[in-house]
Design a protein that fits this description.
Order of helices and strands: EEEEEEEEEEEEEEE
Structural class: mainly beta
Shape: rod-shaped
Strand content: over 45%
Number of helices: 0
Distance between the termini: 79 Å
Strand order of the largest sheet: 6-13-12-8-10
């Protein structure tokens, strides 16, 4: 119509989405696009609201669901001797949503071998994962980088050389009785590592 049609709006939950300013559908047009300010950055579960539009004759509404924004909070990695396995932990800002959260992992040094992706199931805020290392001859700092949903977290761990394990001592009783067995003990200078 001449002069256009004035439209007013109402959000049923202004803590999630603000009510848009009134808008006018100009003469000759059939629609107008309005911006809606979405809030709810602290949501932990999907939450819905209704947006109403009225021209003072008819009123219509639409149901809108706001999905939480899941981001990385931190990644950590335990230092270890080269050749042994180790563990790390990924922490999200809020629980993973439907479908889980697939976090990508990279290592700055090939002596730390990480899984390419760790998926936190729906509802999980943190998850531990296993990694392997290879032997080193010097202390080797390694940076672990985790990436998810546009956010990145890093952690530094050390891969250290394993000590040289050699025979340290042997002991036995100073006096034994002829014809009777006795026990001797051999000692290493360190414990034997299990690569598993």
């Amino acid at each position: 119509p001449a002069g256009g049609v004035n439209i007013t709006f109402l959000s049923t939950n202004t803590a999630l989405a603000g009510t848009p300013d009134p808008a006018t559908i100009v003469e000759g047009a059939t629609s107008v696009t309005v911006p809606v300010q979405v809030l709810g950055s602290t949501l932990t579960t999907p939450t819905s609201f209704k947006l109403y539009a009225s021209d003072n004759i008819a009123t219509r509404n639409v149901l809108v669901t706001i999905k939480p924004v899941v981001k990385l909070s931190s990644v950590s990695m335990n230092s270890v001797e080269g050749g042994l396995s180790t563990t790390g932990t990924i922490v999200l800002t809020i629980p993973a949503q439907v479908g889980g959260a697939a976090v990508s992992l990279t290592s700055s040094d090939p002596h730390l071998v990480l899984p390419a992706t760790i998926t936190l199931p729906q509802g999980y805020t943190a998850l531990s994962f296993a990694a392997t290392t290879t032997p080193v001859t010097v202390l080797t700092p390694v940076t672990v980088t985790a990436t998810f949903n546009g956010t990145t977290a890093t952690a530094t761990m050390n891969v250290s050389p394993q000590p040289v394990v050699t025979l340290s001592t042997i002991t036995a009783p100073a006096n034994v009785i002829g014809g009777q067995p006795f026990y001797g003990t051999v000692n290493l200078n360190n414990w034997v590592r299990d690569p598993a």
